[in-house]
Amino acid sequence: MKPIARQLFKTFLFSAIISILVSCAYYAMQNKGLGEDLKSILPSLSESVAFLNIIIFVMSLPTLFLANPAYYNNLSIRLVLYYAGSVVFLITTFRLDQLSTQNKALYFITGVTFIIVHSVFYYLMTRKRGFKR
Q: What are the pLDDT tens digits along the chain (133 aa)?
């Protein structure tokens, strides 16, 4: 369980850092020429992206059940436990009508970044352990 927990925490850290960078780039592109200063918005943008990553991290905690070999060896259960939390986050994001388009974009950037980083660690995990069918 320790390697999976460590991997999930690394996913959270890398995802948070990459999400903040991509969100800042998105903000800079959206507000180009409007006189908006990125320095003034950076603290609140970083904080909100970090909180979104915490939410996705908590939703991805069922990944820890993969320490059980019976769950890990079943491919369909492994994929559901590994990706369900972050996919449900993205689906929920698009279903919320209260969010503005800019907020949906920020949520989407954060969710997709988490899934990409999570997929890289999934590939490394399955390559290291090998498939047992």
A: 688 899 999 999 999 999 999 998 888 888 876 656 777 888 899 999 999 999 999 999 999 999 999 998 999 999 999 999 999 999 999 898 888 888 899 999 999 999 999 999 999 888 876 545 4
- DSSP secondary structure of 10-53: HHHHHHHHHHHHHHHHHHHHHTTTTT--HHHHHHHHHHHHHHHH
Instruction: Give the C-alpha separation, 88 to 101, whole Å.
Output: 19
- Of the candidates 102, 66, 69, 98, the one whose C-alpha atom is nearest the C-alpha of residue 82 is 66
Q: What are the φ and ψ backbone dihedral angles of 60, each rounded to 5 degrees?
A: -95, 5
Give me the residue spans of the domains in the chain: 2-129
Amino acid (one-letter) located at 88: V
